[in-house]
Write a structure and sequence with these properties.
With about 260 residues, the protein is an alpha/beta fold. It has one domain: Rossmann fold. The protein has helices spanning about 45-55, 75-80, 90, 100-110, 120-130, 150-165, 180-195, 210-215, 235, 240-250, 260-264, and strands at about 1-10, 20-30, 35-40, 60-65, 70, 80-85, 170-175, 200-205, 220-225, 225-230. The protein has a 6-stranded mixed β-sheet with strand order 6-7-8-3-9-10, with helices on both faces. Strands 2-1-4-5 form a 4-stranded antiparallel β-sheet, with helices on one face. Helix 4 (about 100-110) packs parallel to helix 6 (about 150-165) and helix 6 runs parallel beside helix 7 (about 180-195). The two termini are about 30 Å apart. The structure holds adenosine-5'-diphosphate and magnesium ion.
Length: about 260
């Protein structure tokens, strides 16, 4: 479904500040697969998402989505196929607009992707149903300004918006890292629910070893712009956070996991 072949990204090339953010990365994501990505700060995880979404162009390599070469396709043309949720709950929704208005914007955005734009009332009940399924009580607050919602509620709305139009791929960049543990747990269960309901292909960057073991079919560890290991199959099913930390330390790469990563 998605494949990256020998993708490299270097920032500030040829200067003292040169950073080889991605070094010869090859990875593929099958349809319906759920992958978690972990790694120390600065490992290149967000840059990986930036080249997939088109925010950054690779300096070498090739990216295909559904056999379509998208290596140099502009970001706005990919946004129908690729949903993205960031760490900061304020980035995904528009303050000053209500939940209903935010959802409408996402629906309009997806129209070109084949989203059926039925009469307004059909939309209304559909939004209600979507939110009702989340069990967060937001279906009764469709006219509330999103600025009044908690971080967890905003991330829940952002997730619903990102999946509203059934993207081919959903990219989650530490989307629970700014939330308190309860809200993080709710957003994670919503993530699982949305991913399985639509059989979405998901790549989730997480700071949490627990989440990396709890969700998905495959774990990828990145370090200094490279994929240093992948765990799938039987080994993945039995994986514990302790195993992951041990694997990371056995790399002896000099990179450190933060307290946040070790404790979460
Ligand atoms: N636009 C940019 N310009 C210069 N350096 C960047 C840019 N984006 C990321 N980097 C650098 O690339 C490296 C990887 O960053 P990033 O992908 O954000 O890491 P992660 O998400 O794993 O913490 C870091 O050293 C970071 O400082
Ligand atoms: Mg990052």
């Amino acid at each position: 479904m998605l494949s990256l072949e020998h993708v490299s990204v270097t920032f500030n090339e040829g200067t003292p500040n040169e950073v080889r953010a991605l070094q010869d990365i090859s990875i593929s994501v099958a349809e319906g697969e759920f992958i978690t990505v972990i790694g120390s700060n600065g490992a290149g995880k967000s840059t990986l998402f930036n080249v997939i979404s088109g925010a950054v162009q690779p300096h070498a390599g090739r990216i295909e989505l559904d056999r379509d070469d998208i290596t140099y396709k502009p970001e706005y043309l990919r946004s129908h196929d690729i949903g993205r949720v960031f760490q900061d709950p304020r980035l995904g929704t528009c303050p000053g607009l209500t939940i209903r208005e935010n959802l409408s914007l996402a629906a309009i955005h997806g129209r070109q992707a084949g989203f059926r734009r039925d009469v307004k009332s059909a939309h209304e009940s559909w939004f209600f149903e979507q939110l009702e399924q989340q069990h967060l009580g937001l279906e009764h607050r469709l006219d509330a300004d999103v600025a009044l919602l908690s971080g967890g509620q905003r991330q829940a709305i952002t997730l619903v918006m990102a999946t509203l139009t059934k993207p081919k791929l959903l990219l989650l960049d530490e989307h629970t890292a700014a939330l308190d543990p309860n809200a993080a747990e709710q957003v994670i269960s919503l993530t699982e629910q949305l991913a399985s309901a639509d059989d979405l292909s998901v790549v989730m960057i997480t700071h949490s070893m627990q989440q990396a073991c709890q969700l998905g079919d495959r774990v990828i560890m990145m370090n200094q712009g490279q994929i240093v290991f992948e765990i799938a199959g039987e080994e993945r099913r039995n994986l514990t956070p302790g195993d992951l930390i041990e694997r990371f330390h056995s790399l002896d790469s000099g990179a450190e996991l933060s307290d946040r990563q070790l404790l979460a």
